[in-house]
Amino acid sequence: SSELTQDPAVSVALGQTVRITCQGDSLRSYYASWYQQKPGQAPVLVIYGKNNRPSGIPDRFSGSTSGNTASLTITGAQAQDEADYYCNSRDSSGNHYVFGTGTKVTVL
Amino acid sequence: EVQLVESGGGLVQPGRSLRLSCAASGFTFDDYAIHWVRQAPGKGLEWVSGISWNSGTIGYADSVKGRFTISRDNAKNSLYLQMTSLRAEDTALYYCAKDINYDSSGSFDYWGQGTLVTVSS
After folding, report:
1. Chain B hits for A39, Cβ within 8 Å
2. The predicted structure's pLDDT at residue B34
3. According to the model, what pLDDT value does residue A1 have?
4. CB-based contact B74:B30 (threshold 8 Å)
5. Do the chains contact at B105 and A86, CB–CB below 8 Å?
């Protein structure tokens, strides 16, 4: 079972803000990365490190961490943001990597 | 343009072996760690294995340790995954994913399109 827990699904009205959370003990020591995956496509990295966006990722995506919880915030959600989102980080031993359980984001 | 192209997947019987390959282009391959990540049909992502730029650091998920072996050939810009004693639960789409760092940070900035492995009798 995953050591990183996410809510299975969230919904957000078009143009509004949504926060997706990822909980796990390892997040007290390591940053999470966040990936967006649309149906039939490979995942895309949207946030890594403290709050870094790869080239080409819109600035409406941001990341933060507090205690054992990492968050991905989409400010002004767009229809194209509808996707599954996964966090990942090191596991509690620090030697391996683990993905979160995933959150399906629906834009209404 | 960074490209990662996986190959070698297919239908295999339980207990048999299979070797996956990932051909990389568009970046300096031996400057980065590379990983295998899999996704069972309709399920989430699972990290399988990773290897640092010089093969000095290698890691495996507990679910595959002792059965899978990761390797890389920097001269050929290629990554491999030798899979033995395959089980039904290994059925998944296997992605090759590039790390942002040479020594494995766990952040994967480029992914291939995956190769499907189906373990069934």
Report:
1. none
2. 97
3. 52
4. yes
5. no
